[in-house]
Amino acid sequence: MASAELIADGHSARAAAFVSLTPAQDLARLAAEQDVDLVLVGAPPELVRDPVLADLLAAAPCDVAVLAGAAIRPGPVLVPFVGADHDWAAVELAAWVAGALDVRLLLAGPRETAGGRDASRLLANASLAVQVTLGVMAEPRLLEPGAAALLTAAEEAGLVVVGLTDRWRTHGLGEVREALAAAQAPVVLVRRGLRPGGLAPRESRTRFTWSIKA
Fold this sequence. Notes:
By secondary structure, this protein is α/β, with parallel strands linked by helices. The chain has helices at about 1-10, 25-35, 50-60, 85-100, 120-135, 145-155, 170, 175-180, and strands at about 40, 65-70, 75-80, 105-110, 140-145, 160-165, 185-190. Helix 5 (about 120-135) links the parallel strand 4 (about 105-110) and strand 5. Helix 2 (about 25-35) runs parallel beside helix 3 (about 50-60).
């Protein structure tokens, strides 16, 4: 059992099993009762179109991470970052993973937007927040707009962590997230919970619209 392996490695772990006719609602209730910070689930073939996963994403009070693709492989942790609420949750989770695995954390943003600016300032703010809060260094990566550059960067990553769009209920993942989920690199899709995140500053509402389409 996974909990036994964790305990043997010196980690605190608890395990519980139950039968449920409404798994999404019961998992959300369990997360609330146990004051859970993160629910991690495997991705069904239909991703957010799966009704159970969609219900869990809608009901869970905490952050939810959905692991799609293969197991984590050697390489850095890559986060496509445009400053949206779910992106901050993705950065926080990615920083924990990068620190635990002792690998590089890469924050990717657009090299140029419609307004002629790039995402370097936004990436710097996120990098500083990660350093101050979690003690993990984050390296910025400015990419050309469009899905191709992001997918190329994902090929070199050991894990890609990406926040969901705010409109996932009506628009699904969007073409780029769908492509990432189907790529060779393992991908974690993150939905931010109701509680305030540990990284996002209150004034951080600057968002870049680039290759991550709703």
